[in-house]
Amino acid sequence: MAETHVIGPATTGRRTLRFIAFVYGAVAYLTFLVTILYAIGFVMGLVVPKAIDTGSETRVISALLTNLVLLSLFAVQHSVMARKSFKQRWTRFIPQPVERSTYVLFSSLALLLLFWQWRPMPAIVWHIAQPELAAVVTGLSLLGWVIVFTSTYLINHFELFGLHQVTSNLVGREVPAPRFRTPLYYNFVRHPIYLGFIIAFWAAPTMSVGHLLFAAVTTAYIFVGIWLEERDLVDLFGDQYRDYARRVSMLVPWRKSA
Fold first, then answer.
1. Where are the domains of the chain?
2. In tens digits, what is the pLDDT along the chain, a chain of 258 residues?
3. What percent helix, strand, coil does the chain show, rounded to 5?
4. Residue 249 in 3-state DSSP?
5. Residue 81 and residue 106: Cα distance in Å, rounded?
6. Considering just the CA atoms, what is the radius of gyration of the chain in Å?
7. What is the Cα–Cα distance from 104 to 165, expressed in whole angstroms?
8. Which residues are within 8 A (CB) of 218 and not within 5 positions of it... i.e. 6 or more apart?
9. Which phi and psi (to 5°) does residue 119 adopt?
10. What is the DSSP string of 52-115?
11. What b-and-e string marks burial along 8-38, b requiring 16 or more CB atoms within 10 Å of the CB?
12. How far apart are CA 119 and CA 201, in angstroms?
């Protein structure tokens, strides 16, 4: 006897919701791509209409306060929404498959707001006049961005930015539990993504006061983020991560971990 499958309204409704979740995740991912590409131009002063040292100038104190508020807004959103306790409360209101996509979308919007409202502080802290040396420093900054991108692919880029979760949900497949892995860069530093950002932000042939503020505050936030992230990783992987932290340096390659 042939087996008959009945597709009722409930099944159709679930498929529709899964498709909507996938579209939402795809939009969040594309928003992230636009944001990170704009971030490169913003920091390096390349191509984009408004970079870190361009735009209408305001009084120094006003610019300083505005920029600090924008950086703090991103830091708070980025840290709070990443914590396990927040996720547990947050997923009471939004479906689990789109939790990561929502985090990525909110982070991207916070960064876009920063780019839009950033106040330039163009006074020069240092400037490398020699073209060859300036080109080397620019290349170093680009290398930092390369480290950031390649590091995300080493640990599963699409899961990190939510696309893997909504795709698995669309086809009705469970997302596997996290596995502890240390591919390539992760054998030399525990946080190559953060290392890449630090290199990208600080390697500037011309460093303005505004750029220095951006680099200093984001670097300070990176250390706070590492502290919070490593607590979560110890909770998740236990002694496996503790042993890894003893063997591998946090940010400086080949330096013995403290």
1. 9-247
2. 444 444 555 667 788 999 999 999 999 999 999 999 999 999 999 999 999 999 888 899 999 999 999 999 999 999 999 888 888 898 888 999 999 999 999 999 999 999 999 999 999 999 999 999 999 999 999 999 999 999 999 999 999 999 999 999 999 998 888 888 899 999 999 999 999 999 999 999 999 999 999 999 999 999 999 999 999 999 999 999 999 999 999 999 876 655
3. 70, 5, 30
4. strand
5. 9
6. 21
7. 12
8. 71, 197, 201
9. -105, 120
10. TT-S----HHHHHHHHHHHHHHHHHHHHHTTSHHHHHHHTTTS-GGGHHHHHHHHHHHHHHHHH
11. eeeeeeeeeebeebbebbeebbebbeebbeb
12. 17
Which positions ≥6 away from 140 have C-beta within 8 Å? 199, 203
154, two tokens = 């080493």
The one-letter amino acid code at 158 reads F
Q: Which amino acid is at 10?
A: A
